[in-house]
C-alpha cells in the first residue's frame, strides 16, 4: 500500500508495489463488456517531484463524524470497508491514489445537503464521485477527503415524450439512460467510451464531449437545468425544463465543467434528440494527415446534416488495438495504413443517407483522398468499427503506463505534435494519436512499461508549451482535475484565472469541495 | 462450376425486437433490416471457393418483396457476380415454398453447389436447406463448420457441428450445404466492390415464371412475447429460503 508520509502526498520515484488492486474498470463498449473487474498493479505515479501537502485547515475524521453520517444516511451507506475504499480511492488508470477512510452513498439531494452542511461546518474536505472514469485524477481523493459517491441516486425523475426533455438524478449511468431513451425513440446527446460506467452528474460536472459532439454540441447547449448542492448544504434548484428562459444570470453554466469544485450536481435536466432510424458507418484508410483534413472538410459539405461522427486514428493506434484486444479484426486487413477515419451518419431515411454516403466516398476515392474503405452492412459491423475506435483507450493501459494528453489544436497542426513527441522520445515510449478530428480534438497517448520520471520530464511541460504556442487548449474535454490544475495558465489568461479563484472562494469559502484540483494550488496556500 | 447462394433479408440481429400491438407479428416498420448472418457466412464461403479457383461464378438469390434488392446489393458488394430476385409478393414466403423456388432456379442455373445459411434468425426454421436437398435429391451437408472442395474428384468434405461433436462427411457434387457460425468470418463490403456492384445485374423473376405455385398451408394465429423474467429475491435466513422453495417454487 502506498502510505503517504505525514503531511505530504509524495509522488515517489517508481517502484513496484507488492500488492495488486481490484479496480472495477469501465470497458469502452456497450453491454457485453460492462463492469469487468480488472487486476491492476498499483504503481506510484512518477513525476517531477510535486509535493502537494495536505491542507492543515481541513479537519480529520473522527468517530463522532461517522456516527453522524450513519444517522443521516443509514449504516449500510457509510462505507469504511477496506476493499471498497481501495477501489474508490484509485482512478480508472491506476495512476492516482488517495487515502480516504470514508465513502458515503447518499440516496437523495436532501442527504447530500445534510452531508455537505455538516462537512462544511466541520471543515472536512470531500470528493464528489460518480463513475470514477475521469482521466485527470479529478474523481479520487488526494489525501483523506471523504468520498461522496452519487451512484445510488440513479432514478429517472421524468421524461417529456413530446419534447424529449429528460430529468434524472446525477447517479444515472449514461448507457442506462440511453437504453431508457431508445425505448421512447430518443437518444442522449452525448456518447463516450466510458458510457457503461460513467454517470450523468459526472458528465455534466466535467462538461464531457465525446463522440456525438460534432452533431449535438456541448452540454452547455443541451443541459436545460441543474439541481446543485453548494458547499454549505444549500440546495440550488435550477432544474428548469424550458428551452428558453432568459431571466437573469444563467448560473448552471458555472457548474457545468467545474469538476465538482463549486457544487455537487444532484439532478440534471437535459434535452434529448430524437432517435433517427438510419445509421451508416464507413471505415476508411488515408495516406496522410492532409487527406484526413480534406476528407473532413468534404464530409461536412457533402454529408452536411446527417454527419454525426468523424473520428481518426493513426497506424500505431490501430496496431495497438489489434495486438491487445480480443475479438477485434481490421476492416481493411490488406495492410496497416497510415491513418484511419471512422465516419458515422445518422438520418431519417436509410436509402437516402446511404446513397449520399456512397457517392461522397466514391468521389473521395477517385480524388485520392481515400486509399481504401468499407461501409458496414449491418449493426454488428458498425459495432465492430466503434469497438476499434473506443478500444484504443482500453488497449493503451495494457502496456503498463500511459500518459494521456487531450488537446484542442488548429486542424493543420493537429498531428504535428504526435510526430514531434515520437521523435523526441524515440525508443523510450510508444506514441499514438487519435481523436475527434471533427472537433479539432487530439488524444495523444504516450505509453511505457511503467510510470517514469525521466519520460515525464521529456513530455511535460513541452506538450503544454507547444499547445500554448499554437493557441490550443491543454485540455479539450478531459478537464484539469489534479493532473493539470497548475497548468491552467497555458490556456487561460491570468485575469480569467483570478476571477475563477474569486468565484471559488465565494461559493466554497472553506475550500472543502474537491480541493487541490482544477485551479492552481498557489492561490489557496 | 457455378455456386448458387440463397440469402434472406431479416431484421438486423442487433435490434431489440418488439411484438406488434395487435399480436399479429413482430414490428418491422422503421426497423433496421440486414442480410441474415448465416447467409453472410454462406456467401463468404462461396466467394472463398471462387477465389480458390474451384468455381467460376457466384450467383446470389433472394426470395421476397422489393426491398430484397438491398440485400442482393450487399451480396454483390461483397463480391457476388450477379443476383436473382424472386418477387413473391409482400407476405413472407415459408421454407417449403422457398425450397420449391430454389429447386426451380437450380434447374435453370445448373450450379455445382447450393449454399444457404443453416437458418434465418427471424423464424429459426432450419428447414429450407434440408427441404431443397430432398426435392432435388441432392446430398446435403448441414451445420457446416468446415468445407473442403476436391474439384478433381467432384467431392465436398464437410465438417458438421452436431450435438455429439463434429461429424465429417463426404458429399458428391452437386450438393446442398448449409452454414453454421464457425465456418468463416464474412468480409466487409469495400468501396471498390461497392462501386463495381452498381453495374452488376439483378434479374427479377416471379414464381409463376419458374412454374412454382406458392401456397401457404400455415396460418400465424398469434405472436406474443415470452413472459418477463421476475426479479430475484434476497432472503434473510435459511428458514425463509426453505419456505420459499417449498411454497413458492414448489421444488421441495
TrEMBL record, chain A:
PROSITE patterns: FAD_PCMH. It catalyses: (R)-2-hydroxyglutarate + A = 2-oxoglutarate + AH2. InterPro entries: FAD-bd_oxidored_4_C (IPR004113), FAD-bd_PCMH (IPR016166), FAD-bd_PCMH-like_sf (IPR036318), FAD-bd_PCMH_sub1 (IPR016167), FAD-bd_PCMH_sub2 (IPR016169), FAD-linked_Oxase-like_C (IPR016164), FAD-oxidored/transferase_4 (IPR051264), Oxid_FAD_bind_N (IPR006094). GO terms for cellular component: mitochondrion. Residues 96-275 form the FAD-binding PCMH-type domain. GO terms for molecular function: (R)-2-hydroxyglutarate dehydrogenase activity; FAD binding. SUPFAM superfamilies: FAD-binding/transporter-associated domain-like (SSF56176), FAD-linked oxidases, C-terminal domain (SSF55103). It comes from the Eukaryota. The keyword Flavoprotein applies. The keyword Oxidoreductase applies. Its EC number is 1.1.99.39. PANTHER family: D-2-HYDROXYGLUTARATE DEHYDROGENASE, MITOCHONDRIAL. Catalyzes the oxidation of D-2-hydroxyglutarate to alpha-ketoglutarate. This is Probable D-2-hydroxyglutarate dehydrogenase, mitochondrial. It comes from Canna indica (Indian-shot).
TrEMBL record, chain B:
Keywords: Electron transport, Mitochondrion, Transport. It is found in: Mitochondrion matrix. GO terms for molecular function: electron transfer activity. Its main location: mitochondrion. Coiled coil: none annotated. The keyword Transport applies. Pfam families: ETF (PF01012). GO terms for biological process: amino acid catabolic process; fatty acid beta-oxidation using acyl-CoA dehydrogenase. Signal peptide: none annotated. Residues 23-214 form the Electron transfer flavoprotein alpha/beta-subunit N-terminal domain. One of its GO terms (cellular component) is mitochondrial matrix. The electron transfer flavoprotein serves as a specific electron acceptor for several dehydrogenases, including five acyl-CoA dehydrogenases, glutaryl-CoA and sarcosine dehydrogenase. It transfers the electrons to the main mitochondrial respiratory chain via ETF-ubiquinone oxidoreductase (ETF dehydrogenase). Heterodimer of an alpha and a beta subunit. This is Electron transfer flavoprotein subunit beta. The lineage of its organism: Eukaryota, Viridiplantae, Streptophyta, Embryophyta, Tracheophyta.
Amino acid at each position: 500500500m502506498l502510505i503517504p508520509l505525514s503531511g505530504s502526498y509524495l509522488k515517489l520515484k517508481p517502484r513496484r508495489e507488492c500488492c495488486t488492486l481490484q479496480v472495477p474498470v469501465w470497458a469502452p463498449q456497450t453491454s457485453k463488456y460492462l463492469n469487468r473487474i480488472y487486476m491492476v498493479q498499483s504503481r506510484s505515479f512518477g513525476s517531477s517531484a510535486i509535493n502537494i501537502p495536505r491542507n492543515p485547515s481541513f479537519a480529520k475524521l473522527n468517530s463522532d463524524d461517522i456516527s453522524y453520517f450513519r444517522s443521516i444516511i443509514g449504516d449500510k451507506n457509510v462505507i469504511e470497508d477496506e476493499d471498497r475504499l481501495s477501489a474508490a480511492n484509485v482512478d480508472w488508470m491506476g495512476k492516482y491514489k488517495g487515502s480516504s477512510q470514508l465513502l458515503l452513498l447518499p440516496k437523495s439531494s436532501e442527504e447530500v445537503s445534510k452531508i455537505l452542511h455538516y462537512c462544511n461546518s466541520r471543515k472536512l474536505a470531500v470528493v464528489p464521485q460518480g463513475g470514477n472514469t475521469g482521466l485527470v485524477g479529478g474523481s479520487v481523493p488526494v489525501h483523506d477527503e471523504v468520498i461522496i459517491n452519487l451512484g445510488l441516486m440513479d432514478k429517472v425523475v421524468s421524461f417529456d415524450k413530446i419534447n424529449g426533455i429528460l430529468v434524472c438524478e446525477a447517479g444515472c449511468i449514461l448507457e442506462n439512460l440511453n437504453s431508457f431513451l431508445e425505448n421512447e425513440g430518443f437518444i442522449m446527446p452525448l456518447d463516450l467510451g466510458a458510457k457503461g460506467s460513467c454517470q450523468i452528474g459526472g458528465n455534466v460536472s466535467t462538461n464531457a464531449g465525446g463522440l456525438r459532439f460534432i452533431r449535438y454540441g456541448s452540454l452547455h447547449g443541451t443541459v436545460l437545468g441543474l439541481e446543485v448542492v453548494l458547499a454549505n448544504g444549500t440546495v440550488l434548484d435550477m432544474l428548469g425544463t424550458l428551452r428558453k428562459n432568459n431571466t437573469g444570470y444563467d448560473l448552471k453554466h458555472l457548474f457545468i465543467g467545474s469538476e465538482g469544485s463549486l457544487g455537487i450536481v444532484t439532478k440534471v435536466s437535459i434535452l434529448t434528440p430524437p432517435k433517427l432510424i438510419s445509421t451508416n458507418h464507413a471505415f476508411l484508410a488515408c495516406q496522410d494527415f492532409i487527406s484526413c483534413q480534406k476528407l473532413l472538410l468534404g464530409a461536412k459539405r457533402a454529408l452536411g446534416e446527417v454527419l454525426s461522427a468523424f473520428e481518426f486514428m493513426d497506424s500505431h493506434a490501430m496496431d495497438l488495438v489489434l495486438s491487445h484486444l480480443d475479438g477485434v479484426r481490421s476492416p481493411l486487413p490488406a495492410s496497416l495504413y497510415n491513418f484511419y477515419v471512422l465516419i458515422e451518419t445518422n438520418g431519417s431515411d436509410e436509402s437516402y443517407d446511404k446513397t449520399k454516403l456512397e457517392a461522397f466516398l466514391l468521389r473521395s476515392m477517385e480524388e485520392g483522398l481515400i486509399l481504401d474503405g468499407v461501409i458496414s452492412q449491418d449493426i454488428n459491423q458498425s459495432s465492430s468499427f466503434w469497438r476499434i475506435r473506443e478500444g484504443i483507450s482500453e488497449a493503451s493501459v495494457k502496456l503498463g503506463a500511459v500518459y494521456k494528453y487531450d488537446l484542442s489544436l488548429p486542424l493543420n497542426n493537429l498531428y504535428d505534435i504526435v510526430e514531434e513527441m515520437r521523435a523526441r522520445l524515440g525508443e523510450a515510449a510508444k506514441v499514438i494519436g487519435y481523436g475527434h478530428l471533427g472537433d479539432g480534438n487530439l488524444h495523444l497517448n504516450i505509453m511505457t512499461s511503467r510510470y517514469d520520471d525521466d519520460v515525464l520530464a521529456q513530455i511535460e511541460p513541452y506538450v503544454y508549451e507547444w499547445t500554448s504556442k499554437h493557441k490550443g487548449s491543454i485540455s479539450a474535454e478531459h478537464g484539469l482535475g489534479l493532473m493539470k490544475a497548475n497548468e491552467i495558465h497555458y490556456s487561460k489568461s491570468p485575469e480569467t484565472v483570478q476571477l475563477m479563484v474569486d468565484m471559488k472562494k465565494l461559493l466554497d469559502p472553506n475550500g472543502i469541495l474537491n480541493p487541490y484540483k482544477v485551479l492552481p494550488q498557489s492561490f489557496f496556500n | 462450376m457455378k455456386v448458387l447462394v440463397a440469402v434472406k433479408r431479416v431484421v438486423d440481429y442487433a435490434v431489440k425486437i418488439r411484438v406488434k400491438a395487435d399480436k399479429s407479428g413482430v414490428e418491422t416498420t422503421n426497423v433496421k433490416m440486414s442480410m441474415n448472418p448465416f447467409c453472410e457466412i454462406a456467401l463468404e464461403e462461396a466467394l472463398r471457393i471462387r477465389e480458390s479457383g474451384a468455381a467460376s461464378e457466384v450467383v446470389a438469390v433472394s426470395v421476397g418483396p422489393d426491398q430484397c434488392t438491398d440485400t442482393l446489393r450487399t451480396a454483390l458488394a461483397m463480391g457476388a457476380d450477379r443476383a436473382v430476385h424472386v418477387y413473391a409478393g409482400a407476405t413472407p414466403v415459408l421454407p417449403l415454398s422457398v425450397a420449391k423456388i430454389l429447386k426451380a432456379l437450380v434447374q435453370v442455373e445448373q450450379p455445382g453447389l447450393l449454399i444457404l445459411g443453416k437458418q434465418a434468425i427471424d423464424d429459426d426454421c432450419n428447414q429450407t436447406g434440408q427441404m431443397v436437398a430432398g426435392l432435388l435429391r441432392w446430398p446435403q451437408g448441414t451445420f457446416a463448420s468446415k468445407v473442403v472442395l476436391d474439384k478433381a474428384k467432384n467431392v465436398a468434405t464437410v465438417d458438421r457441428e452436431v450435438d455429439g461433436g463434429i461429424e465429417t462427411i463426404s458429399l458428391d457434387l452437386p450438393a446442398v450445404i448449409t452454414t453454421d457460425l464457425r465456418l468463416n468470418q464474412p468480409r466487409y463490403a469495400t468501396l471498390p466492390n461497392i462501386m463495381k456492384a452498381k453495374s452488376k445485374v439483378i434479374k427479377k423473376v416471379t414464381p409463376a415464371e419458374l412454374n412454382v405455385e406458392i401456397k401457404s398451408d400455415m396460418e400465424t394465429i398469434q405472436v406474443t412475447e415470452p413472459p418477463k423474467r421476475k426479479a430475484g429475491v434476497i432472503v434473510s435466513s435459511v428458514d425463509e429460503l426453505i419456505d420459499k422453495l417449498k411454497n413458492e417454487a414448489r421444488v421441495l
